[in-house]
Amino acid sequence: MEKPRLAIIVPCFNEELCVKSTVEQLLNVLNKLVSDEKIKPDSYIYLVDDGSVDKTWKIIEEFHNKNKLIKGLKFVRNFGNQKALLAGLDCVRAIGCDCAVSIDADLQQDEWAIEKFVDEYMKGADIVSGIRNDRKTDSFFKKITALMFYKTMNILGAKIPPNHSDYRLVSKRALDILEQYPEKYLFLRGFFNEVGLKTAYVNFDVKPRMAGESKFNFVSLMGLALNGITSYSVVPLRFVAVLGFCMALFGFLVGVETVIEKIFWHNSPNGWATTIILLCVFGGIQLFCLGLIGEYVGQVYREVKARPRYIKDIELK
Ligand code: UDP
Ligand code: MG
């Protein structure tokens, strides 16, 4: 196989503290891979500015003016990390590349693992997924919620390996398939796992964030998790149906029991507390299920409007 033209995609949101050294370090990686004859010399870095309000874009422009192998795209506003990644993948496909790696702007992922990614690609993998060795740098809360998310996804049938991240290499072939997916809220981890292309795994070490703060909060992480679940599984909807059936059956049996007691023992049950408890429990379950169905309706609603995934402001090719 011929050595590939590699594109490195970096989503950046208010990363003025990180982006300069990140680009320099990624250039080191590119130069090393080029001198080792593992990738073509026209391999490049593609930075997607997800509507930053700090100096991020200015720094990207300065790099581009000095070195055309540093390209970029700016969104008109913040669209979120998944959209920035999607835009990066779309754009490098348009510019041209044989494979693309996505990595975070804070270089929490070990950038030297890219070499192993390329090796796996040369062995024939279309997708090379980075797997974190551990989650040492994550807070306890993030560890727990991430574990819960991957467990839930597995139970629901979308088998995403735990400790998976958006650090991965994808081939041109995978990019071409991605292009055929019109979903606006595509969940990339689910997608690359589901397409069925040959996948390899590479372990990498996680580092603490280089500078600045995490750009994710509880609400955005929950949004990502819910999007992942509702895009890749309808099991929760079936669960609601089964639960409804069980509750109805329970109600029916209690009804029969009450009538029998009344007829044969002339007992009029006086369960005020029981009534209130059952009312609250069943009311709660009903609202929960309604909310759950609402998540899917919301997903349909967002997709059916078919708004653009993101809006480009400036592109540096
Ligand atoms: N990011 C983005 N848009 C957002 C939030 C984050 O492009 O709305 C980028 C961010 O600049 C970084 C990557 O996504 O390159 C991962 O974000 P971060 O490191 O803050 O997340 P964490 O590592 O804490 O999960
Ligand atoms: Mg990070």
Please explain how this structure is put together.
This protein has 317 residues and is an alpha/beta fold. It has ten helices and eight strands. The protein has helices spanning 19-35, 56-66, 81-95, 113-122, 140-155, 172-179, 188-194, 218-232, 235-265, 272-305, and strands at residues 6-12, 44-49, 70-75, 99-102, 127-132, 164-171, 199-204, 312-316. An eight-stranded mixed beta sheet has the order 7-5-6-4-1-2-3-8, sandwiched between helices. Strand 2 (44-49), helix 2 and strand 3 form a beta-alpha-beta unit. The structure holds uridine-5'-diphosphate (UDP) and magnesium ion. Uridine-5'-diphosphate (UDP) binds next to strand 1 and helix 3.
Key features of this structure:
single chain, 317 residues, alpha/beta, eight-stranded mixed β-sheet, 10 helices, 8 strands, 52% helix, binds uridine-5'-diphosphate, binds magnesium ion
Q: Order of strands across the widest beta sheet?
A: 7-5-6-4-1-2-3-8
Low-confidence stretches: none
Portion of residues in beta strands equals 15-25%
C-alpha-based Rg, rounded? 25 Å
The beta-strand count equals 8
What is the 3D form? elongated
In this entry the ligands are: uridine-5'-diphosphate, magnesium ion
List the total number of helices. 10
Calculate the terminal CA-CA distance, rounded to whole Å.
27 Å
